[in-house]
Design goal:
CATH topology: Rossmann fold
Shape: globular
Number of strands: 8
Order of helices and strands: HEEEHEHEHEHHHHEHEHHH
Largest sheet: 8 strands, mixed
Number of domains: 1
Radius of gyration: 18 Å
């Protein structure tokens, strides 16, 4: 079955868009029926794809047009093996071109983990193209060059590992990462589907993503947060202490931020607690006036 056929069978319609650095795969959920709705652009995490949003797409499609992007090195996108093409800025430029091609601007950006870092970078550098931003288990990067250099070293080692040992050994290692510990509580069938999706990743694509867009390569955004003037929802699972702290830190710099800490959740909130994730996003996107935003913030944590 082709990528397009698999996407169509799941409710997604996959489009391949040429950008200066490669082919960007963009999937529309619910097809033409959603074209007149506000775009909700979904950006997955490392080892994910547009299919990472299957659990929440039906609920989000009620309030907007779900457009999920396969980031470079993932899914149906093809950017080759040069890590330079995977940098944060060049990935943001490819995303900008992709959203223009499918008429999905300005958009609400919804990014998870790696996708959340990209969403924040896009919001900081291209605020006029972003209506709102939802950052799930995301961070502004690392503040010092020493931290970034250390992370580049560990990401490069991980890239060598996937290239030398192959995807199965890599997925075994990735799924044992402490930040993903909460995934072990997922139903066996869900865990199996998640593993199967990761096993479909390209070793070369993952290696280039690690070397080009890893946290160590990302510019520090902590001192540029005020540039993202749009409303922001910062979401983290209460068991994911590092990213709870990151959300609180970002909320102090972003001009219009609400923090939502999800009880009983780890890093992957939209998979572990799909209903609560969708409820929080739907309420946030539906808050079109200051009174509604104020009412919403009483459920979350306004810092």
């Amino acid at each position: 079955m082709t990528d397009a056929a698999r996407a169509a069978a799941s409710g997604w319609q996959l489009h391949k868009i040429a950008t200066p650095d490669g082919i960007l795969a963009v999937a529309d959920y619910d097809g033409a029926a959603a074209r007149d709705r506000e775009p909700l652009v979904l950006l997955h995490g490392f080892t994910g794809s547009h299919r990472s949003w299957d659990a929440v797409a039906p609920a989000l499609a009620v309030i907007g047009r779900c457009v999920a992007v396969d980031l470079p090195g993932h899914g149906g996108s093809d950017f080759g093996a040069d890590p330079a093409k995977y940098s944060m800025e060049r990935t943001a430029a490819a995303l900008e071109a992709g959203l223009a091609a499918c008429n999905a601007r300005p958009a609400t950006l919804i990014g998870y983990s790696m996708g959340g870092r990209l969403a924040l970078y896009f919001a900081v550098t291209r605020p006029q193209q972003v209506r709102r931003v939802v950052l799930e288990s995301a961070s502004p990067g690392l503040a010092t060059e020493a931290e970034r250099a250390a992370r580049r070293g560990s990401d490069d080692e991980l890239a060598r590992f996937v290239l030398e040992r192959g995807i199965e050994a890599f997925v075994d290692r990735w799924e044992s990462t402490p930040v993903l510990r909460a995934e072990r509580r997922l139903p066996a069938r869900t865990r199996a589907r998640l593993r199967q999706a990761r096993m479909q990743c390209s070793p070369a694509g993952l290696a280039a993503s690690l070397r080009g867009m890893g946290v160590g390569q990302q510019p520090w955004l902590g001192d540029r947060l005020r540039s993202a003037t749009m409303p922001a929802l910062l979401m983290a699972g209460e068991e994911d202490a590092k990213f709870v702290e990151a959300a609180r830190f970002m909320s102090r710099g972003l001009p219009d931020a609400t923090v939502a800490i999800v009880p009983g959740a780890g890093h992957n909130v939209h998979l572990e607690h799909a209903d609560e994730f969708a409820r929080l996003v739907c309420r946030f996107v539906g808050s079109a006036d200051p009174a509604a935003t104020a009412a919403q913030s009483q459920e979350g944590e306004r810092l």
